[in-house]
Write a structure and sequence with these properties.
Elements: H1 3-34, H2 39-50
Amino acid sequence: MAKRPRDRVQPLTRLTRLNLQPSTFNLQPSTFNLQPANLQQTVLKLAYWHN
């Protein structure tokens, strides 16, 4: 019986992580819209941040 609540908590944490990730992706295109002339610099910055 003790294993069941733990199994219920794990998928909830996975769902919250998946829900938090697209919000960060939604914030990134706004930076591309703010700096259309500096796309190369933003791409290099994003590549540096992901590494």
